[in-house]
Amino acid sequence: MDFYEKMNVEPLINASETYTNLGGSLMDERVLQAMREAGNHFVDMGKLLDQVCSRAAKLSGNEGAFVTTGAAGGVILSAAACICGKDEELLDRIPHLKDVVRKEILVFDGEFLDLIPYWKLIGLTGAVIRKVEPTVEAMLQAVDERTAAVFLFPATLYEKGIPTCEEIIPKLKEKGVTVVVDAAAQLPPPSNLWYYTKELGADLVIFSGGKHIRGPQCTGLIAGRRDLTESCRMAASPNPRIGRAFKTGKEELAGFITALELFVNEDPKKRFAQQESMLQRMQQILKRTDGVKTELIREGRLGTYQPLLLVTLPDGMTAEACNRFTRASKPAIDVGVYGPEFGMPENLIFLNAYNLKEGEDQIVAETVSRFVEESYKTKSSEA
Ligand SMILES: *Cc1c(COP(=O)(O)O)cnc(C)c1O
């Protein structure tokens, strides 16, 4: 019996996003194989961690790297590193930092800050989080001797009404402030792995391993300045410090580094084209459905390099109802519903091929089409 059958949990087709609550992404067979092999032996974990991290630094085009349990774990470890550096006594004391002066982490107080829960987790280190008015001037003025770092959250949505990384990072670097970028979901293109650090000058950048990199769900990457990534390593498991709670196992380390290798060696244009042709096939099917309008766009939901198919349902049909229908279908499908924060029409869904297997595109398009047809029928029987 299949595992999900045994657990009585029904698998679904992911036509929406690398959402954590759907399981993020699926790992390549080679990633799963590396995990199985890693699980066959005991190993000196310190040595494995060092090797995996130095390989991750090379692959991501950064001076240093640390592999952790997820971007959220990465945010917390980075904050610890920015406050404590390599001071072992301070690292031991986290989160009890009452008498430490330089422990403020600054974030922009943008309209969408509450959509990003991750900055709050910084508080677990004992840091004081200060929200700053979202202008370049206000941020530069807020920096003083108490500032340990500025944390930034790039994405077209989160940056609405606040300065972009391009605007603020060079200015902060002129002032000598440590800058950390949480770019968890800002992939592809793979060049973003070094864009924020090498091109813009940020000190650290953080990515999810379980989203677009297609590694294990519970992995993440911190990359950038080596002294800081080494400090993350000191704060982390197997040491008895804050990062003991974010333990990566040998299997996850093996899976992550294999996935990262595949991700950086893959031609992003080729992957884009594969997704685009899946979306075009869905577009062909949906076009034949009465009253449905489609548009293929060349930018992901948060501004990343991936195509999306926007589908406008006939008037009176909502994206929410469509997703309820597809989730209840066999096989169950999750289609993209924009949250209210995107300010999109309520009859607009998005379809994303990033997580679709060959052949699933047709099932998705036909199911959405069936939703429209059945909604027409219900309407006319009510009339
Ligand atoms: C998804 C996400 C995270 C959390 O990533 P995990 O790898 O699931 O821990 C953190 N920050 C941002 C901006 C994200 O989109």
From TrEMBL:
<dbReference type="InterPro" id="IPR000192">
    <property type="entry name" value="Aminotrans_V_dom"/>
</dbReference>
<keyword id="KW-0032">Aminotransferase</keyword>
<dbReference type="GO" id="GO:0004125">
    <property type="term" value="F:L-seryl-tRNA(Sec) selenium transferase activity"/>
</dbReference>
<dbReference type="InterPro" id="IPR015421">
    <property type="entry name" value="PyrdxlP-dep_Trfase_major"/>
</dbReference>
<dbReference type="Pfam" id="PF00266">
    <property type="entry name" value="Aminotran_5"/>
</dbReference>
<dbReference type="InterPro" id="IPR015424">
    <property type="entry name" value="PyrdxlP-dep_Trfase"/>
</dbReference>
<feature type="domain" description="Aminotransferase class V">
    <location>
        <begin position="133"/>
        <end position="232"/>
    </location>
</feature>
<keyword id="KW-0808">Transferase</keyword>
<keyword id="KW-0663">Pyridoxal phosphate</keyword>
<dbReference type="GO" id="GO:0008483">
    <property type="term" value="F:transaminase activity"/>
</dbReference>
<protein>
    <submittedName>
        <fullName>Aminotransferase class V-fold PLP-dependent enzyme</fullName>
    </submittedName>
</protein>
